[in-house]
């Protein structure tokens, strides 16, 4: 083994604590980088592969069959921008009931002879394709947990609003990567499903030579629509928006992973630099001996770099493996949706993560080790380990006047003697406190988002067998509300009616909620504007405003049951249901077009301390003859929220451990450098517990200062990253989700910095207390 190799092996063996610290900090930084990068790339892989295999449509266009002919629609495919096209297919919106009486969302049904074709090859996942009238194939969204997840092939759906209430047999489930329709039938079936007096629509599917960007898709759309009247086009959908929805949830994780990755990189630079600098400082005499034996400055620098790079390589390897393993549960839902089995491993991201971690350590260690290379042999051999005094003498005199035990005041003065090392502890503790503050804030913000999905403590739904027409049992809304109001524990209640409306510029129907009663039960969080105040006003979410190119204060015309309803957008609300495309309004806004529309769901707030289950049991006795049933509402944890919280907790614990070990390393260096002073203190009567107190006191000031500085950084990160996550999902977040810190919480987080510092100093404090006086005095 070469001389340099022996020096490296000896250095790594002697500094076990420092070696472990480097392994942990590099592993955490690499794991965060690999996980974030992999999610960006691998989350899109199942969609991209399915889109390629199925020849997905770059653009889907809907036309009004009453304003354009089939030949005119077909002629749009002849434009030079179109490489392939399929259609036109006749389409019609259908409101249907499953054979179990459950109403489905309004379905866009397309008439299509076969699932294959030049564009949008629909994949049958269960059963077969429709071959004759009376058969239907439904879109299979079971991987996403949608309404069709409970649908069984062989069942039936009924269209109760059409004459004769036609019934269609479900012969198959299928997936379209383009999401071109909710269901498919043979073309001749469309005529029977189209209401009298309506024309239905045409659908065209296009693929373009260039469609990688929004601008290219827009150019292709403008080209094919140039010869068609704007009034004939009822809506278009780009494949890029479909891709965003398909891969959006996995990408939600990327912003907060970036935070931990950046914090990890800063910690790696700080700690590796501190370790190498400390190693050089404490081994000045050893460096002099090495140079006297013939080591060149470059060899000395390389030896100290290698002492950092060996554990860094181990840590980077662990981080790459951990990052790939953590990717699996995140990509699981995307794989289930498209029937793929992507492992999530992206080799070039692994290489970049591993190489990047080593590069950062190498540069940091090189900069810190340069001092060792520049030392002259004679100067290195002529100095001892203990530095000259003078620095921090003023602070020592000030601390000595404090009414505290002398062991404490000695410890409080130590950071001022070595401001560089004190700064290293302050920064490490500050990053740890920032991570804790950010993690707690992120978890609370996600809890606030979840809280918007549950309204009230108890809900009342229709209950009982369907009527003779197959519809769910009819509820007497006034009687149900009276029974609810009669309960002493009721503090608020409201009714909810659901219907479908058409919105200009939006393909397919949009769900509208009509509210009655106490609307405070539906605890929606406003982003801007106001909650609706009576009929004629609506509140909507960010995706609706973007889709319709409207803003708060604008008027828009809705169509329900053939009647136009002009409404004003009173406010923007945070609402993720139906991908943010719901309309919330007063029930009276909708009853002019549909006088029979009445609430079919009731939500109830009960008095604090009331057992919701007992309340529901009591209310059910009053509802027995009203075809309704009360059930207790329970918040269901979202899979991605659980994943985010779990990853946040894991990465935060790792960062806290790294911060504490960074403190430990610095205190170890400081204690060893001052070991002779420690021996003198012991010789004049300092007992072990006083030694421990002195060492712990040396990190009190930096611990408190680091906590105080880390909390504002954590708050800034929480607000920025949560806002970015909302933007990535297409929503503007309300202040209730962003502004979640309370003064008491911030105080605890700041004190958390002190806890991190004390935890990191405990082991070296114990080591100092156990050091024998004679041993300490002989070290010089």
From TrEMBL:
Q: Where is the ABC3 transporter permease C-terminal domain?
A: 258-374, 651-765
Annotated membrane-spanning segments are: 20-42, 252-283, 304-326, 346-369, 422-442, 640-664, 692-717, 748-769
Q: How does it sit in the membrane?
A: Multi-pass membrane protein
InterPro entries, alphabetically?
Answer: ABC3_permease_C (IPR003838), Macrolide_Exporter_MacB (IPR050250)
Spell out the coiled coil positions from the record: none
In which domain of life is the source organism classified?
Answer: Bacteria
One GO molecular-function annotation for this sequence?
transmembrane transporter activity
| Family affiliation | Belongs to the ABC-4 integral membrane protein family.
Q: Would you tell me the protein name for this molecule?
A: ABC3 transporter permease C-terminal domain-containing protein
């Amino acid at each position: 083994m070469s001389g340099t190799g022996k020096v490296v092996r000896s250095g790594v063996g002697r500094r076990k604590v420092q070696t472990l610290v480097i392994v942990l900090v590099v592993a955490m930084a690499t794991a965060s980088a690999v996980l974030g990068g992999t999610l960006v790339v691998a989350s899109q892989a199942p969609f991209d592969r399915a889109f390629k295999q199925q020849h997905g449509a770059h653009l889907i266009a809907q036309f009004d069959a009453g304003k354009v002919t089939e030949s005119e629609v077909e002629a749009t495919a002849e434009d030079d921008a179109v490489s392939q096209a399929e259609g036109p297919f006749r389409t019609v919106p259908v409101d249907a009931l499953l054979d179990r009486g459950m109403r489905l969302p309004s379905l866009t049904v397309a008439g299509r002879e076969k699932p294959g074709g030049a564009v949008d090859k629909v994949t049958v996942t269960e059963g077969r394709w429709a071959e004759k009238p009376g058969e239907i194939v439904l879109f299979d969204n079971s991987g996403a947990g949608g309404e069709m997840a409970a649908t069984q092939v062989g069942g039936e759906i009924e269209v109760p609003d059409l004459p004769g209430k036609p019934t269609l047999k479900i012969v198959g489930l299928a997936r379209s990567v383009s999401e071109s329709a909710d269901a498919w039938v043979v073309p001749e079936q469309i005529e029977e499903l189209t209401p009298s007096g309506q024309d239905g629509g045409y659908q065209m599917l296009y693929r373009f030579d260039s469609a990688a960007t929004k601008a290219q898709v827009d150019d292709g759309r403008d080209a094919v629509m140039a010869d068609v009247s704007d009034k004939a086009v009822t809506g278009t959908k780009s494949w890029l928006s479909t891709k965003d929805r398909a891969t959006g949830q996995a990408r939600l994780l990327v912003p907060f992973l970036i935070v931990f990755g950046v914090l990890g990189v800063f910690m790696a630079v700080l700690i590796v630099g501190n370790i190498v600098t400390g190693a050089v400082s404490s081994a000045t005499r050893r460096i002099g001996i090495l140079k006297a034996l013939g080591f060149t400055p470059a060899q000395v620098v390389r030896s100290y770099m290698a002492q950092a790079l060996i554990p860094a390589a181990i840590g980077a390897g662990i981080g790459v493996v951990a990052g790939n393993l953590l990717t699996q549960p995140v990509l699981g839902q995307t794989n289930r949706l498209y029937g793929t089995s992507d492992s999530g491993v992206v080799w070039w991201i692994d290489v970049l993560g591993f190489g990047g971690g080593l590069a950062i350590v190498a540069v940091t260690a090189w900069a810190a080790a340069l001092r060792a290379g520049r030392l002259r042999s004679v100067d290195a051999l002529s100095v001892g380990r203990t530095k000259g005094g003078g620095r921090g003498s003023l602070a020592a005199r000030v601390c000595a006047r404090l009414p505290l035990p002398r062991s404490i005041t000695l410890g409080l003065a130590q950071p001022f003697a070595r401001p560089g090392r004190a700064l290293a502890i302050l920064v490490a503790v500050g990053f740890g406190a920032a991570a804790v503050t950010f993690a707690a804030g992120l978890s609370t913000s996600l809890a606030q988002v979840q809280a918007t999905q549950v309204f009230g403590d108890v809900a009342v739904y229709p209950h009982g067998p369907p009527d003779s027409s197959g519809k769910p049992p009819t509820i007497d809304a006034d009687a149900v509300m009276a029974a609810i109001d009669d309960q002493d524990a009721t503090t608020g209640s409201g009714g909810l009616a659901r219907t479908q409306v058409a919105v200009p510029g939006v393909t397919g129907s949009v769900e509208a909620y009509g509210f009655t009663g106490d609307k405070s039960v539906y605890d929606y969080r406003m982003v801007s504007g106001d909650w609706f105040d009576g009929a004629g006003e609506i509140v909507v979410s960010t995706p609706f405003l973007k889709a319709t190119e409207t803003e708060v204060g604008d008027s828009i015309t809705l169509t329900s049951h053939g009647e136009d309803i002009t409404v004003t957008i009173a406010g923007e609300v945070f609402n993720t249901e139906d991908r943010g495309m719901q309309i919330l309004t007063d029930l009276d806004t909708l009853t002019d077009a549909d006088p029979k529309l009445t609430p079919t769901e009731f939500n109830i707030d009960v008095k604090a301390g009331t057992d919701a289950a007992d309340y529901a049991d009591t209310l059910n006795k009053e509802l027995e003859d009203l075809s309704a049933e009360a059930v207790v509402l329970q918040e269901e944890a979202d899979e991605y929220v659980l994943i985010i919280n779990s990853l946040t907790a894991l990465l935060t614990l790792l960062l806290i451990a790294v911060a504490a070990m960074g403190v430990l390393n610095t205190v170890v260096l400081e204690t060893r450098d001052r070991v002779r002073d420690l021996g003198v203190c012991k010789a004049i009567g300092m007992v072990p517990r006083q030694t421990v107190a002195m060492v712990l006191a040396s990190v009190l000031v930096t611990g408190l200062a680091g906590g105080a500085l880390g909390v504002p950084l954590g708050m800034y990160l929480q607000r920025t990253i949560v806002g970015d996550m909302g933007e990535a999902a297409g929503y503007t977040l309300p202040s209730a989700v962003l502004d979640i810190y309370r003064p008491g919480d911030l105080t605890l987080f700041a004190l958390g910095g002190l806890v991190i510092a004390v935890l990191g100093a405990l082991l070296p404090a114990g080591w100092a207390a156990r050091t024998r006086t004679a041993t300490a005095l002989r070290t010089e």
